[in-house]
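In this supplementary section we document a worked example of the pipeline. Step one takes a protein sequence of length 736 as its only input; no multiple sequence alignment statistics are reported here. Step two produces a three-dimensional model, which step three serialises into structure tokens for compact storage. The input and output of this example are shown verbatim.
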Amino acid sequence: MKLTNFNCEIDADGIALLSWDMPERSMNVIDAATIEDLETVVAALKDDEALKGAVITSAKEAFSGGADLTMLERMLGDFGDEIGRDPQGAIAHFFEQSRRFSLVLRALETCGKPVAAALNGTALGGAFELALACHARFAADDGKIRLGLPEVKIGLFPGAGGTQRVPRMIPAADALQLMLKGQQLPVARAKAMKLIDDVVPAQGLVAAAKKWILDGGGGKQPWDRDGFKIPGGPVFSKGGMMTFPAANAIYRRETYDNYPGARAILQCVYDGLQVPMDVGLRIESRYFAHVLRSSEARHMIRSLFISMQELGKLARRPAGVPPSTIRKIGVLGAGFMGAGIAQVSAAAGIEVVLIDRDLEAARRGRDGIEKALAKNVSRGRLAEDRKNETLGRIAPSADYGDLAGCDLVIEAVFEDRAIKQAAIEKAEGVIGKTCVFGSNTSTLPISSLAESSARPENFIGVHFFSPVDKMLLVEIIMGRKTGEEALARALDFCRAIRKTPIVVNDSRGFYTSRVVGTYIREGHLMLCEGVPPAMIENVARMAGMPVGPLSLNDEVALDLGWKILLATKKELGPKAVDPRQEKLLEEMVVKRQRLGRKNGKGFYDYPEKGNKRLWPELGQLAGALLDPEAIDIGELKHRLLAMQALETVRCLEEKVLTDVREADVGSILGFGFAPFSGGTLSYIDGMGAPAFLALCKSLEKKHGPRFKAGKLLRDMARNNETFYGRFAPRAGAQAA
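The serialised model returned by step three reads:
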């Protein structure tokens, strides 16, 4: 067999060992050439009587991460070019293209010869669907391996047979949970769920798969045999009636029907289990072609896969600066944020000096890290030896002299200019000339903090998000004098700790804090207008936000918002703040001492036992509440999302943002902006600049000048431009 991406060895027993090894790639992906190879394999298995079966494994560390989504993006581009010339032909061609992989997997499982998957590493998405199409699945006994179908997280769903095979292998309720959550399973869990047949030592993996074939492994799937019964019972059975109505209700509650890919999973499983396998696969393919063409899928693929990959590979790193290895860092402040930064750094193999005002405080920070790691061990997410290795790299200290030899120092002390300035001066008294100093401030301008530094060219903002170990984003802020070497070092650090960085220019609140502040403010103003608090929170989630603005404000602390408002008013004048918001925060913080979650009372009450609940007296602060039936829910949604998108445009116009990818990725990873939209700028592109401008004008007329569009948006609306058209990044290259 002549193959491009697989090495083929046929042993004396007639078993073909297919080792997936894509040239010039660190990980195997499913692309057109891979599909062609599999078609060749299927033809050989069918036609060559000397072949008794096949084992598919990988020559790389991972089995495969799934489909090359740039292939799907090109497919969509070709469809867009063809649809105007021949609509019917374009649709038919797109459908056949989009189900090509599904067809080859079906041909593989019906070729008549036994095929086993030997999963030596992680197999996700289409790669796991390939394994499911094999007649047996063996996995190496390795705690790092993950198996699953995470397509829903990028707006798609398992469209190569996943929605049909999984619910024919395990009960529909478990299958739906696996796919709707995009779960990635360790091999032991996958075996317990009967998604793989056995877990064996890595060195005996291929031998176990071959033995299964030699011992009479069958070349027919259970669902292709007479008498097959669906696990958990058919759709119209007691089990089915307990599964599908509940699953639909949970889907609606969690997504508010904003995700076509998730909806398609439910529909494909429900419809597919009522028909033969081939009909079910065709149903799945039709839904897949439909979802793939949706704006939600296009934008999520672009932002959450392609752009994230490009930024993760440091698309914004200065080309002329040699790569650096971060061996030792200092973290100033052992509180919640500082400890989180220390934890992720030590877990990445970096030595950490964790400094606080005294040794006891620094040790408390390390103890908190130990508790967090121990919890991960108890949940099976971390090995005991890895926990000990991580803790062994963290040295608590109160002596700034211990920072000597650090490649990078990050201050995460209290958000107070004087305290930060003192920490900067102490650290710079001992660190080397080439050490980069990063501030984790979320609001204070980096350029002004850098005035306390003797080396402002080595001073940069490194803004983490809470909780640090879970949040994927780091916002890198360039001060007026920050140099390229400092930027390169900060980005190298982000890569070392496996975070996605965005690079922005200095501004009050930078990008993420500035935009999320407008979201919180809009919630405050709705409350002042008499919109019922529960409606504000629920409509925010309906619009696609992970939490409502009042809940979010409680998390970041109301007194912090009050301090920021006062500082803004002092530096920019009274017109820079909304008097209604000022009055509300003064009432909550100063008069009522309701500071948020941190003191157990904010917009919500936080009882010692039980769930948080909205403060019963909250609605009274606005006076009379509006009649919920008379409130336009659509307008509330638009206010919450459009305000954030409009502020993003202002950041782009002011050159705080210089890359549209960073705007979208930062908005989703940083503050959870409606992921189905693809991010703040994709939200506008999806609507169209003229329509978005019209929306802003209507909101400005009713709610005031905060919705007034700037020149950039007006120009784009006049020319019917998109942000990804006007500011198109060079994929795979460094952005300007």
